[in-house]
Amino acid sequence: MIQLTINGQPQQFEAPINVAQLIDHLALHGKRIAIECNGEIVPRSQFPQQILVHGDQLEVVVAVGGG
Could you give the CA distance from residue 23 to residue 66 in angstroms, rounded to a whole number? Predict the structure, then answer.
């Protein structure tokens, strides 16, 4: 069991997951998002390779249009 902090809220997962799996879990697939892990921006090209582990701090920002 691992614990991640996502936008200030603790969440638990059965095993380590990658950023792409987290996006699916949060139902954000297909949306314009930016993810920061432990203070570092994760490039979209690295989402499948970036493994999240116990204690990681994430900020997930969803871009919204408007005018």
Answer: 23
